[in-house]
Write a structure and sequence with these properties.
Blueprint: H1 3-29, H2 31-40, H3 59-70, H4 76-92, H5 98-114, H6 122-135
Helix pairs in contact: 1-4, 1-6, 5-6
Length: 151
């Protein structure tokens, strides 16, 4: 396996770990709220009520919204999808633009700074691997000896 492919696969693995870990921890920590969505019916289980000077939101409604935005509405699902795309591109030998890596690294640096302690900082490693993989210049494979390929 070439260096670029290894770097991109590691970056993808880190991103999948962060995304799946995030959703799994949320499901474990807020299982009552998540299972409540099925009890209430999935259609509009998390209503988006705009404040227009009416009634104040309840603690239950705020917790329900927090659970949604921390789970399926969070960064976790797009992060997993981006990881799957990078994994696929690595398998095909396609170079991932370094801007993707810089964006992931910057986003994780800001997120980790705002939410301490958190595993956001691990995402910086994934971003750096994507940037590094974009800079790797792969050399064509050279036969080990002339005996394998006589002239």
């Amino acid at each position: 396996m070439n260096t670029r492919k290894k770097m991109l696969r590691w970056a993808s693995g880190i991103m999948v770990f962060l995304g799946v870990g995030h959703v799994s921890l949320l499901a474990a920590a807020a299982w009552g709220d998540v299972s409540g969505w099925a009890d209430r019916g999935l259609w509009a289980a998390v209503p988006l009520a705009l404040s227009d000077g009416g009634a104040e939101p309840t603690v239950d409604s705020l917790r329900n919204e927090l659970t949604f935005w921390a789970g399926p509405g969070s960064f976790a699902v797009p992060l997993i999808l981006l990881a799957a795309l990078i994994w696929h591109l690595a398998g095909r030998g396609v170079r991932v633009p370094p801007a993707i890596g810089w964006g992931i690294a910057a986003w994780c640096a800001v997120g980790g700074t705002l939410l301490v302690p958190s595993p956001f900082f691990v995402g910086i490693v994934a971003g750096a691997l994507v940037v590094g993989a974009a800079r790797v210049r792969e050399r064509p494979e050279v036969p080990a000896s002339r005996e394998e390929h006589p002239v």
